[in-house]
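Reviewers of the previous submission asked for a worked example of the structure-prediction workflow described in the proposal, so we include one complete record here. The input consisted solely of the amino acid sequence. No template or homolog information was supplied to the procedure at any stage.
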Amino acid sequence: MSDTKLVSVSEIFSLQRPEQKPRTKNQLWIKDVGYDEAPWYSERMGLLELEDFLEVAGERIDYVKIATTQVLGHPENWLKRKIALYQEHSIQPYLDHGYFVRAFRLGVVDEAIEAGAALGFSVMEFMNTFGDVPESQLRKWRNRARDCGMSLIYEHHPERGWRKGVSDRPATSAEIIEGAEPFLEDGAFTLLIDHEEIEIQKDSAADVIGEVVEALGKEQVAFELTSTKEAPMTWYSNLLDYFSMFGTDCNVTNVMPSQVMFVDPLRYGERPADILFKRYPELVKASHNKETN
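From that input alone, the workflow returned the following structure tokens.
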């Protein structure tokens, strides 16, 4: 038997490992739809699949959005087991803004906060309500969530994310910061910027959103990818755009499980084979932009 010291595959190929958790940059937040696949998704995540998935990918993931349809439609004991499994891997599950919106429409936000905490959620996401909810009431709900042991996320949406039928108007950096400040002052740890806001900013996105990042710090901002429900491959273009505009260490959210192992190689500069661009011609422009910026 050879006396040569064995080296690992990681050492041979100089593979980079994720920074240890907790981390404030390079964060990756995923979306878990459970068994709510039809008609938009094909990424089943039951408990057996999840346990195996986390053994492979758990070190790369920081937070997980448990889809609201899953919270409302799956058995509570099963949800508690799923939440606990994520937490065993130092991944914090959170209730997304859709949960808050549904509760608001029914007039049961306080009860919904308490019910979410009882399931084991330690994080809840709120969103901008465009004056429909007084700041005094929002503060009471933030306090209720914190009293229930929850941390807070604030997500900024264009107005059409709150009410239907309104025209798109890009927000200014001051408006985004102004909306986030009361939540940040009450302990929210992240301003999450919805992908639709970045889209309607168009060529101004790097400047406007960049001013937000400069004001708040990269550690307090996260950028949402477009869901595969809306477009099958736009998430890839989003990643290249975000890494180009905000740095490869920026925090990204709404990553589907099948995309997780793809994100870090993209951060480190790797790019997929040409077959991807042949199959999805819309990605060629994003690739070109990345190479020329």
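The radius of gyration is 20 Å. We consider this example representative of the routine output the project will generate in years two and three.
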